[in-house]
Amino acid sequence: MRKYLLLVLALVLVVSFTAVGFAQDKTEITVAAGSVGKELELTQKAAQMYMEENPDVKVNVLSTPDLANDRLGLYLQFLEAKSPKVDVYQVDVIWPGDLAQHFIDLNEYGAEKVADNHFQEIVQNNTVNGRLVAIPWFTDAGLLYYRTDLLEKYDRKVPETWSELQETAKYIMEEERAAGNPDFYGYVWQGNAYEGLTCDALEWVFSNGGGTIVSPDKKITINNEKAIEAIDMAAGWVGDISPTGVTGMGEEDARKMWEAGNALFMRNWPYAYTLGNADTSQIKGKFDVAPLPAGDSGSSAATLGGWNLSVSKYSEHPEAAADFALFLASEKVQKMRAIEGSFNPTIKSLYQDEEVLEAVPFFGKLYEVFTNAVARPSTATAPKYNQASEIFFQGVHSVLTGESDATTAVQYMELDLKDLLGYETGEPRQP
């Protein structure tokens, strides 16, 4: 992994700084941005918009790895070296507590004037020791994508429970294969050993009454029968309604298989909606989205995701960097990204915007899914969330690949989390 990150860093420094515009004697800043779906394209567009309004500033857009764990590793190489090469970082909603020491307080640069426009839960998440270390940019929650044409063809309804999903996926998969598509599967999702699997597996576990791995009151809760049942359930999908290769899939892998018309259901984030309706997509106009199914708890669970913008303490131009970060998080840019990329705004008023709702109707229909999403235990485990998450997703992955059984895996998770965090065990809270 370290060799990979060093190679990425070298390539980044030599090749990947994409200058959006150029002129002499300008203040020059760089934003490290994601490249999943249309992220990079829309960040470059926003950078161009900013430079047109601020001709004395040149903005470079740095593409970063798709997988969150690889991106964090790259960031840490810059931050721990106190490098001024990157001024603005796109940071995961789970990172502010761990990375706060490297970022400026945006309230000192005008953020306090606009913070009330955003979802307050995210603002609070990004406030560490009274310092706003990240401004909200877009929020996320896991969704179930489904083929409307195939459910209609086989007279099946959108599944409300995991059992219904499994049964419907199995039936239609077999029918579609018999009709001549041997590559068709019932369900694709994020099964690789990375943060995305933590998100997916938390949804299975929480919706089944198995808690949130570590509770908000700092009790380790993962070793329970409901969690074991949920992980076992998902392991049963591998090689059945899901391809064996799902254990190596990230968001983009699942999306590409889905857009090729080779899956009935997909778990993914909202960004996949616009891309699924692109002219190049085989399922354009043939799908919709719904809340993820429920387990034994009777409640659906969607993991809270999303990304924010932070300004490095090591930036040589903190004023310009902060101004650009606030511009990216502004209503104008968030609206553009919502319409063109189906990125969920963090500005509340945009969920009543007619143009936004026309482009992405489910923003209104599934509003409660986004506002009631289940948080990963990043606060309860800070500043060791990333290590705690790795213990969880590696343990789950070992079950998915058949290297371990779920009972043994959660027992080891509990022991490893106790060693890492020093917390006691407890009972999971019910949804």
From TrEMBL:
Keywords in alphabetical order, please. Answer: Signal, Transport
Q: Which residues form the signal peptide?
A: 1-23
Output the InterPro entries linked to this UniProt entry.
Answer: Bact_solute-bd_prot1, SBP
What SUPFAM superfamilies does this protein's entry cite?
Periplasmic binding protein-like II (SSF53850)
- At the top level, the lineage of the source is Bacteria
**Gene3D superfamilies for the chain:** Periplasmic binding protein-like II (3.40.190.10)
What Pfam families is this protein classified in? Answer: SBP_bac_1 (PF01547)
Q: Which family, according to UniProt?
A: Belongs to the bacterial solute-binding protein 1 family.
- Protein name, entry field: Carbohydrate ABC transporter substrate-binding protein (CUT1 family)
Organism expressing this protein natively: Halanaerobium saccharolyticum
